[in-house]
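Bench notes, afternoon.
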Amino acid sequence: MAIIDDIKRTYRQGTMLMRIIYINIAVFVLLHVVALVGILINVPTQDLVTWVQMPSDLWRLAHTPWTPITYMFAHYDLLHILFNMLWLYWLGRIFLEYFTPKRLSALYVLGGLGGAALYLLAMNMLPHFAGHNSFLMGASASVIAIVVAVAVWAPDYKIGLLFIGEISLKWVAIVTIGIDLLSVDAGNAGGHIAHLGGAAVGAIYATALKRGTDITRPLNACLDWLASLFVRRESGVGQPVGGKAYDKRQAAASDRPTEAEIDAILDKIKRSGYTSLTNHERDVLFRASRK
């Protein structure tokens, strides 16, 4: 169908930030479509949504081990997804002024996992939450990880807020974390705890990177390895293929700079400028632009 083809093309041509937003919107729409079908066949909506929500109960979690990932892309309330996606879009664009798209996607996932971990610890170890079974859903922890990361990296970056005017990112992060701390005993205690977990991951990321350590590197390396498996399968590597065309593909692949090389060069340009690059690094960048 033309509409589906248009959606696919828009997704492929979009930035990493927009792809994450598209995934969240797609899951939101899918959940509502499935819920509508559930209503028609008399299946409670909540029973369907729990397949993507992360439960606080460890026994239930053991039966849905994928939910620590799916929960951070899932929303059911319109205002919930609207606020999260606007927040992600505004602050994600600022994040990309300093960091690469791959680090954005990796931090999104790590922030969500950090929120999930703190949520599970609090719900299962703090006496106040004993006997409380709840579910976690939404991208808030992931988004706050990105907000706090860029606020720690560039604390004096100014943004304009309606009715307030220009304000430094550090104050946006401080106020956001403060609201979550004061709201832990409110109705959505688990959600606010997850926000704090995401904020901690964002702060750790920016602080570690200032000291030369990229905590997103292991996750990105794993994702690169998984992507390479699909590339090999599509190109027929490992299969008995003869002829000059295959040899040319091999030569082109060996000449192609890796994602890690390109990211390292782009980081160096951000830190020291283009003139700091060696002749080899400029050659790698040139070859990457040709590809």
